[in-house]
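The passage that follows is intended for readers who have already worked through the single-chain material. We present the inputs for a multi-component assembly, then the predicted structure in tokenized form, and finally a short commentary. You are encouraged to pause after the input and sketch how you expect the pieces to fit together before reading on.
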Amino acid sequence: MKKYDSLELDFHDIELAFPLSRRAFMRLMGGGLFIFFCLGNPLAAQQQPRQRRLRQNLPSDFNAFLRIGEDGRVSCFTGKIEMGQGIITSLAQILADELEVPLDSVDMVMGDTALCPWDMGTFGSMSTRFFGPPLRAAAAEARAVLIELAAEYLQTSSSQLTVEAGVIFHTSQSKKRVTYAQLTKGKRIARRLTRKAVLEKASEFTIVGVPVTRRDAEEKITGKAKFAGDIREPDMMYARIVRPPAHDAKLIRVDTSAVKKIKGAWLIEDDDLVAVLHEDPELAEEALRQIKAQWMKPLATVDETTIFDHLVKVAPEGQVVSQRGNLAEGKRISKSVVEHTYFDGYVAHAPIETHTALAKVKGDKATIWASTQTPFRLQEEAAATLGFPVEHVRVITPFVGGGFGGKTRNQQAVEAARLAKLSGKPVQVAWTRAEEFFYDTFRPAAIVKIKAGFNGSGLITLWDYGVYYAGERGASHFYNIPHHRTMAYGDGWRGTPGSHPFKTGAWRAPGNNTNTFARESHIDILAAQAGIDSLEFRLKNLKDKKMIRVLKAAARKFGWRSSKAPSGRGWGIATGIDAGTYVAHMAEVEVDKNTGNVHVKRVVCAQDMGLCINPEGAAIQIEGCITMGLGYTLSEEIHFKGGEIFDLNFDTYEIPKFSWLPKIETVIIDDKKAPPQGGGEPPIICTGGVVANAIYDAIGVRIFQLPMNPERIKQALS
Amino acid sequence: MIKTIHFMLNGQPKRLVIDRERMLLWVLRTDFGLTGAKYGCGEGLCGACSVLINNEAVRSCQLPVEEVNGKEIVTIEGLARKGRLHPLQKAFVKHDALQCGFCTPGMVLTAYSLLIKNPRPTLEQITDAMDENLCRCGSHQRIIRAIQEAIGDMKGGEML
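Having made your guess, compare it with the prediction:
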């Protein structure tokens, strides 16, 4: 096993005076070759317009991508964070490959706003897609500079030189050689990434595409890995905050007189924020219990059963996502038209690490260590709250204990910053599990209405699709349908005023889980009514070659045999596109008709994600997605009344366990000529649909609402 | 009432004065700076805070520290000996049996506890023993593979 001695420094606690000027940054880092990039250049160009807009008022003094140090080690600076998805490994692979250095000479510096280039956040399966190309270009630029330096040093022309493992040598005179370290020694060279670098060809990749072990594994299995809650500062205090019993409840009266019974407890009251601080976390909790608060809860109007009618009622006018042909004509030429409505409840992110942060305020500067997917957004939020200039706030992101979209919101870190400023002490805010559930930005409840028809040859002729509150992601179908229209109502996972009784947000592959469940269920219903095997029906109605290829790859691995559903075998198919990646799933389930229990025995996933940087990492993401997906498919659902949340721990909110585990098999179609696509989200989108279709194949009963828990199965059977 | 308790922590004798009920998890994380045991749910439902007490995996968020008086505690920080990883740790690395790594210390120690009691568990027994340890990233399949590999390593007598 390889040792990465310097990796422990990745989330370095280097004390530094910030904001850093470019010169100070280079001094701090020691000598070497630095590649900087400017705003408006490749990274920004990769981003979508809406995200680009968020970049106003950003500090633009400098942004370094990478540094090749005097010791030959390479540091990669990225605003992305590591939350388990593995980019600490795959981004290092890209860099090592392009620079032609051994993987273990690359150090990743991640999510530190004082050192890393601005980044909008780690979400949307975008790290490899959008950060990868400019990173690769920066590495190519660095290599070109090094070759120029080497040509001078060796007194030869650059065209005579080649690189291997950080050593540049003359192609015909192998004694003429120089290392990167020798070239950068005693120098401080800064280059701006301006030109579009000539990149390595896929056939020349030596590290990309080869499975490698996670680089953070050793720290994580020895307990050395630091998460936000593991950071210690002298004199730090642990905070506990008075919380409302329901969202939008108003604080009527608060009696804090008993807090003084707890020795060493500090009471902080500032507008809406009532908190206690203590140097012992248990005594902070004890002090919180001394506070008696009276609240007025708003009238609760919706719960988990009435929410769907409510949402359809308050939905604003729809937006056309895609359309073709004429729906009336589609209906006319259809032999049979089928109409159904699909429902999906609120789901929590539930990472095992709750939202946690430690904040320290000294004078007019703040340092915040936070479990966050959006360190730069947090930097702005904290600065606004504290009344500091943005560059006076430094956010450091240690390892993040799972995010799944939930840690794009940073309430806990803003609370810590406020309390640190008010108390003058470093303050840790680590949410309890109940706070984590209460303040989670749930995946929204959503509704999908589909009316579709097919003709006598089993071809889909009509597709009239409306999604409410899940959003556009994954809403458009990819089948070959002459007359179709896809409408989206409500503003995706953000909701509209008066829609959701609490905050909702992006949950791993936002919207696509709901859309794919509905679409793929409906496709199966059409197949069954047409009396055609589910795979055959899909292939018949597809023209998209990539989709046909993944479906066939999945079928081969699964050993799919043609049959009309319900066949009693408990086999299902679902397929979809997310973050540029194509996925096709096949599953086998067993349903206990007495208990309503569904056991997913086997899942095959075929995935086409273009160039696959780390096949092992991609397989891990597929396994993780399928396992996590079983939760929203079979058990996960938030129960609530108005703004009051009833599921506040893992006793009632059941997430997938070892005993649920299906046999998972993955097929990765590595298309070396295509750019890399997303990997952390796409394979979760099919779980609901593939299991729903397999349940129908097993027992001939169709479930239209997620999760498909035992109660719903039994109800459907009766 | 002030009490003094004694226990072994990762092979070192320790003494602790307590004047109230305290849970082991917070004693480890604050007094001893051992942050490998994690807070995940605070109710013993997730297993992220698991540590070994006399070789048995115990949820430290639910264990009053006075109950460890006279006992031996091993946390994830104490599993590797003299810089050498335990075979279970090696197997977790080899099989990529982790993603975010937050549940990992609890997983490794729960598996260790199982293998002490039952050196050759079946798949069903592994699943049973690990079932109440939660992982949100979905590393389950690889965790099982890692445990199975560590069982193999026991044959060399290196394991425990």
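Commentary: Residues 5-222 of chain A form a domain with the Aldehyde Oxidoreductase; domain 4 fold (CATH 3.30.365.10). Residues 127-154 of chain A form the longest helix (28 residues). How closely did your sketch match?
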